[in-house]
Structures are given as C-alpha cells and as structure tokens.
Amino acid sequence: MKRSNVVLFSLVFSFVLASCDSNRVFDTYKSVPNSWHKDSIVSFKVNPPDSTKAYNLFVNLRSTNDYKFNNLFLIVEMCFPHGKTIKDTLEYRMADPSGKLLGSGLGSVKENKLWYKEHVVFKEAGEYKVNIQHAMRENGKVNGVVELEGITDVGFRIEKPQKN
C-alpha cells in the first residue's frame, strides 16, 4: 500500500512540475547511443505556433562523467520552410577548471540548457528543421573526435521570453 502511494505521489509531482513550465513551446530530447559519432546529426522538426511572437531557442544536453572535455563545440543548422539555411558554430563551457561537470541534476547525469538564439521570430509558415552535430577536436590534433563519449541526450527547446 505504501509503495503505491509513493509511486502515485511521484507521478503527480512530475506532472505538476511539467505543467508549471508555462514558457515552454517546444522541448524534446533524442538519445545518443553509446557515443556521439562526428557524422551523426541529431535533427528536430518544429512547427512554431505563432509567426508574430519572438522566442528564445536552446540546445539541451545531458552528459555523464564520461565526458572528458571542459568545453563543447557544436554546429547548429536551422533550415527554414522556404529553403533558407543558417549554420552556426557554437562553443559551450561544460566543466569548471577542476573538471567538475556544470549543469543541473543530482547524481552522475547533468543537464545543460545552452543558449542558441534570442528573440527569434519565425516569420515563415511551415516546418523548420534544426540539425545539431558535435565538432569536437583534441588540442594539437587536426582530425576531430570521431566518437564523443559522455553525451547521452541532445535536445532542442523553444520558449517564450520571460516577462520582466
């Protein structure tokens, strides 16, 4: 009997937390198998709800202690419905100088919400596609890291800007 109450409480609490996120417009993750191959592109298809409002865009990552770098380079490409494409190379700090992973979460998995773009207005109607690929290299080496370990999930989030 007590166990079922704990499970029920956990489900209700999770639902309440998720429903309190009133800024969320789109928020989804895709799992990365054992390691993230340099040629593997994580893609998200998005149909923004309003072409007149501005939104903030984020790349979300979940990482474990197997991630051995202090930073992370990503190539993020946004493909617009009518063919235009914007490609950005971004760098994020993933660990402090001692090597401790940054991010939120208890235990071995840390979650990072990384800024991608601010106050974006989706003026074109239709489906947008966001592609995310890692572009990591080790210091002093020309070739990129082929198999990046420690990233378990890659996500993309669109949210309404917070009102001041």
TrEMBL record:
PROSITE patterns membership: PROKAR_LIPOPROTEIN
Alphabetical keyword list: Lipoprotein, Signal
UniProt keyword Lipoprotein present: yes
Signal peptide: 1-18
Pfam family, one: GldH_lipo
Protein name: Gliding motility lipoprotein GldH
Gene source species: Wocania arenilitoris
Higher taxonomy: Bacteria, Pseudomonadati, Bacteroidota, Flavobacteriia, Flavobacteriales
